[in-house]
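Now for a concrete sample entry.
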Amino acid sequence: MAAVHIFAQVESDNPAGAAAVATVLLVIALVVLVGLDLVQRRAARRG
């Protein structure tokens, strides 16, 4: 769904809006990856 929104922003000549949405998605992905890494490290400690 987000990819369609980004594509629509690009097609409507709004590259700044598309970049903003892409940046938000990137930040969310990084937060999820770091969170999963922390959970995995805690689980490994409990062994």
